Amino acid sequence: MAQVVLQSPRGSALRGTSKLQLLARTLPITGAISMLLALIFEPGATTALQAAVAPNLLARVLMVAMGLTAMLYAELKLVSLLSAVAFNVLSTLHQIPIVLAGVVFQHNTVSQSSVAGFTCCIFGALVYALARYNDTH
């Protein structure tokens, strides 16, 4: 869906919509629907909602929300420059800092087969990126 919106034909009103405008229109709706579904399907949601008005927690929620907005903006920018398929293939590269953070900060262990599989996925993503680059140039 994001690829259709961000790569629509020239002159289209959708193509003229900036990524921040798109986020400003979709994120509040997503948040409201998520809150409604949490209240309906999660038994302790009302208690958590009452605890959420604490100023310390609200500041942390705001920081996380700003970080997620920046991340979504970057993802939409990548989808507009590449394609949804290329973005998903290259998203394996996003897992490198996550794995490293788990190993360094939480002392997680990574087996040899996991390292081999991860290396294979990254190699495949790089080969795909190179093939796509060669197709466009």
Automatic annotation (TrEMBL):
Q: Which UniProt keywords apply?
A: Membrane, Transmembrane, Transmembrane helix
Query: Where is the chain membrane-spanning?
Result: 22-41, 53-74, 81-105, 111-131
Return the protein name: Sugar phosphate transporter domain-containing protein
Say which species the protein is native to. Answer: Cladocopium goreaui
